[in-house]
């Protein structure tokens, strides 16, 4: 996260005949991707593929679709890695860059960092998911309408996120953008609008299934608003926005495979497979972006990525019918939202950048009184380097996802 600065073209002065042309100054290329870091992260995929090939007995056609989707996602990963440096040159030419506030006072704080590189991830993701339709869906597939509606929402949100990066819209408008982007899904949604009443409440209510009707669609829209903005405000460190997305998407993949392997309902399996078809490309392209955005960041993701990632996870949670589980995966984001609420509501003055205080002498960050999870961790743990603080926050994100799995295990059969 950085402060964006626009360059204003200087007024051109008429050149005299004896004046020598000035040499054009070009920005240095961005740093190469961090392949060693990516290799360490790739080891976490071993449990996922173990569950697919060995632990669970999954239908051959379903496994085939998942593998094809994984192959296309891998292609998307390499395309994203290749395209980010190309896009960086273009955004720098248009003066779309930022300075890293958490490195102010050091040589790295004066480097122009390309902004809004989440647009590359969004475009590659959409291409991969559209091409995948050729391998998995037929023209009369019941899932095709909702699949394309989901892609329309994600595309709409990516566009609005890029508009936000360019125009820098105010917060009250940012809250409305996900509501607009979620309209294609809400209009095309043809699934059930019922919820299962928790078993301890059934004797008191008298029914097991409750049809919410339009209230359920309202809930879907609010979930999209929360997911997109919660990723956007839980930010401010190199790699934090993409890192939390990677952790949550990995947890979603594990959850989907576990539900497919444990269920005997074909429709239920297809719902979770639908989620996998969108989450695998999200994870692959996000890892490619993380290789450039990890500390020290050579690119900034911008609101384009945070909106895109949040909307994608909201869509898979809604159409995969595990929105309750998704909210527990988002537990750190929920806590960050609750801490931020007094400032976001205007009850307490809210500065433009609610970032920690950086000491260039020690290279450490110190927490401020702003209501963010980043500052809360610093106030409790003491001054930390930016990299170590980000690791602590991502570990906390992983703990929240593990807590969700434990909660589902203990409440299974008793709660629902």
Describe what you observe in this structure:
With 416 residues, the chain is mainly α. The chain has a domain at 35-322. It has helices spanning 35-42, 45-55, 60-93, 118-136, 144-167, 171-174, 177-181, 183-188, 202-205, 214-233, 240-262, 266-293, 302-319, 323-329, 331-344, 373-381, 386-411, and strands spanning 2-4, 97-100, 113-114, 194-196, 209-211, 357-359, 364-366. The strands form 3 sheets. A 3-stranded antiparallel beta sheet has the order 1-2-3. A two-stranded antiparallel ribbon has the order 4-5. Strand 6 (357-359) and strand 7 form a beta hairpin. It is globular.
Distance between the termini: 41 Å
Q: Please provide the count of β strands.
A: 7
Summarize model confidence as the mean pLDDT: 87
Note the run of SSEs as H and E: EHHHEEHHHHHEHEHHHHHHEEHH
- Described by the principal axes of the CA atoms, the overall outline is globular
Largest sheet: 3 strands, antiparallel
Radius of gyration: 23 Å
Number of helices: 17
Strand residues, percent: 5-15%
Approximate helicity band: 55-70%
Spatial arrangement of strands, main beta sheet: 1-2-3
* Helix and strand composition category: mainly alpha
Low-confidence stretches: 1-25
